[in-house]
Amino acid sequence: MKLSPRRKRRPVIAILTVSGGNRPFGGNPCNFIDLIQKGQEMGALVYVTTVEQLDLSRKRIAGHGYNARQKTWEKRTFPFPQVIYNRIPYRKAERTPEIQKLIEACLKDSRVALFNPFFFNKWTLFEWLSRASSTRPFIPRTEKLVSYRNLESLFERYPTLYLKPVRGKAGKGIMRAERREREDSIEYVLIHPARNKRRIDRFPSIYDLWIALKKAIGNKEYIVQQGIVLTQYRKRPYDLRVLVQKDEKGAWSLTGIGARVAGKRSITTHVPRGGSIGDPGKLLRFRFGPRKAAWIIQRTGSTALMIARQIEKAAGQTLGEMSMDLGVDRDGALWFFEANSKPMKFDEPHIRKKSLEQIIHYCMYLSKKRKQKKHSEPAPAY
Q1: In this structure, is the dihedral angle defined by the CA atoms of residues 275, 287, 329 and 243, taken in order, positive or negative?
Q2: Helix (H, G, I), strand (E, B) or coil at 315
Q3: What sign has the CA pseudo-torsion 343, 348, 351, 354?
Q4: pLDDT at position 267
Q5: How far apart are CA 166 and CA 222, in angstroms?
Q6: Phi, psi angles (nearest 5°) of residue 375
Q7: Would you list the DSSP string of 79-136?
Q8: What is the DSSP annotation of 26-74?
């Protein structure tokens, strides 16, 4: 009798999030649906599970699948995952002892590969990138905001400073401070968001500015950073939004480069803060011409990959993707502003499509790597 060949098991990928109160789970369900459907196209089983459901002692995991016909989420059990894609959406939740304990357990479990185990911290990022001579030139002068002395020393060199929350997201909480010289005096100006508008406060001294800042930021940790004069398109500054991800070989690769243009009265380029999406090639050609624009785009990709490698090396953890904000100044030089270990959905269709494919490709690579490691391990002695 002829034996039928063993059916090849497809990779099993769990998207990790938190419970969602009235909803089945927290996070972006549309993003999860896209990943589940892309997994089906590429031959992988993808499901959503929460930190409350993920029990590493069980062979099957409680989770949520998506019924495309009925357009509903279905709660059921799934095979134990080979890969966990961390999409816990809230910093506060991820820092709780219970979730930290679970993430540590996943990282130590030889049966599963978890990548992107934490949100980035802005201050830590700049420390990591300052360690390497290759990435140091792209870092604006940055200090922790601890006293008015920080402001004083930086204002001696730079007329504009940016103040950013260490654990901020999507431009929330960012403020700009300016030193303006008049004929017979100097004033300090603070520009910050207030009820979806921008507010401008003026102060006669750095100390007065510092008192106002302390009141505005409370106990939150902030950094203060050299202000970079960005190149502009029709009097509006913009920066480049870059997505880098690991591929089917486990190597960092460029997924795409977008651009975000600041709103008319906005101090950042973030879309939730009034920014808009732009074509990086068009924006750069307007200022630099076609040849230099092409060179800047090429250098942006190579710089982002170099930065990603340094961040992963310094973090000492397995990372699989990150988005970055890179600024271009009036001379065409690149500056690193921010990196996000849990990128938001890119609105550019070509970047979005490739990003989904890359996530599944990398998860398949990790799954295959886990299987090879499992088979190569010696059998236990009894």
Answers
A1: positive
A2: helix
A3: positive
A4: 60
A5: 5
A6: -70, -30
A7: EPPSEEEE----HHHHTSHHHHHHHHHHHH-TT-EEE--S---HHHHHHHHHTSTTTG
A8: SS-HHHHHHHHHHHHHHT-EEEEEETTT--TTSSEEEEEEEETTTTEEE
Structure tokens at 239: 């920066």
Domains of the chain: 12-117 (3.40.50), 120-139+228-341 (3.30.470.20), 141-227 (no CATH)
What is the bridge-based pairing of β-strands 83-86 and 232-233? unpaired
Tokens 């459907």 appear where?
Answer: 37
CA–CA dist 135, 139 (Å, integer): 7
Question: What are the tokens at 265?
Answer: 């009265």
DSSP string, 126-142: HHHHHTSTTTGGGPPPE
Neighbours of 195 (CB within 10 A): 6
Residue where the block lists tokens 């589940």: 36
Task: Give the residue ranges of the chain where pLDDT is below 50.
Answer: 1, 3-4, 375-382
Contacts of 71 (CB under 8 A, 6+ apart): none
327-336 as b/e: b if 16+ CB within 10 A: bbeeeeebbb
CA pair distance 78, 97, nearest whole angstrom: 26
237-294 per-position pLDDT tens digit:
999 999 999 999 999 999 999 999 987 666 665 555 566 889 999 999 999 999 999 9
Under DSSP, the state recorded for 248 is T
